Amino acid sequence: QVQLVESGGGWVQAGGSLRLSCAASGRTVNFYAMGWFRQAPGKEREFVTTLNWSTGRPSYADSVKGRFTISRDNAKNTMYLQMNSLKPEDTAVYYCNIPTLNSWGQGTQVTVSS
To answer: Less packed terminus of the chain by CB within 10 Å, N or C?
Structure first.
């Protein structure tokens, strides 16, 4: 069983930046695709980005393309989400995910004020 713990959320003004982290424990996750989802109040959880472990290629939702960057440090068993040029519509709880293991973190709140 793998446990995922997100951190790095907070409050930021529009145009600002935040860096989220997702630390995995319980097993090595180097060989799994990992990704980020988010859920805004009153909305369904939506895909943000994912990183293929074998190719290292990321994919992004159109809404964050060019502003968000996903990365991982296999030595630390940790994934990151660098979020730049944040917009109020990015306000949500952000969750990290390993689809193959159906594992989710508890989420971290990101609030962007206009």
So the answer is: N
